[in-house]
């Protein structure tokens, strides 16, 4: 599935992260989302992890890292 930009692809993969990292993402996502009128918080934390990892890879220039043969 392609992303909004035509030169990007959406990948589903397994990423190892620390338990405390996932707990922080879940907690902070719930805090930032707030609750609905019934007092229930509905958030997709898996989507948030995906967004955060994608943003991190973009900001840290993963493309250049991947292009460098020394990283293999």
List keywords for this structure.
elongated, mainly alpha, 72 residues, single chain, 3 helices
What order do the helices and strands come in, and which of them pair?
Elements: H1 19-33, H2 45-59, H3 62-67
Order of helices and strands: HHH
Strand fraction equals under 5%
Oligomeric form: single chain
Q: How much helix is in the residues?
A: 40-55%
Overall number of strands = 0
* Chain-averaged pLDDT: 89
- State the separation between the terminal residues, measured CA to CA: 26 Å
Main β sheet profile: none
Calculate Rg over CA atoms: 16 Å
Unreliable residue stretches: none
Shape: elongated
What do these coordinates show?
There is one protein chain. The chain is mainly α. 50% of the residues lie in helices and 0% in strands. The protein contains three helices and no strands. The radius of gyration is 16 Å and the shape is elongated. It starts with 18 loop residues before the first helix and ends in a 5-residue tail after the last helix. The model has no long low-confidence stretch (mean pLDDT 89).
Summarize the structure in short.
The protein is about 50% helix and about 0% strand. It has 3 helices and no strands.
């Amino acid at each position: 599935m392609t992303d909004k930009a035509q030169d990007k692809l959406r990948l589903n993969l397994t990423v190892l992260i620390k338990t405390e990292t996932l707990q922080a993402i879940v907690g902070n996502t719930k805090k930032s989302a707030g609750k609905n009128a019934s007092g229930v918080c509905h958030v997709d934390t898996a989507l948030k992890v995906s967004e955060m990892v994608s943003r991190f890879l973009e900001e840290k220039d993963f493309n250049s890292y991947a292009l460098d043969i020394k990283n293999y």
